[in-house]
């Protein structure tokens, strides 16, 4: 690793995409739990 290498930080678009995917994953997990509860009640 050279001293002239750029900082190891992903570009803003990549970080935004990762944040969106993380939120999407949380939403999908909550939806699955909700679906299981609804199906379990019936």
From TrEMBL:
Protein name: Uncharacterized protein
Keywords attached to this entry: Membrane, Transmembrane, Transmembrane helix
InterPro entries named in the record: MmpB-like
Family matches, as Pfam families: MmpB
Family annotation (NCBIfam families): morpho_MmpB (NF047320)
Superkingdom of the organism of origin: Bacteria
Key word Membrane present: yes
Parts of the chain that traverse the membrane: 20-41
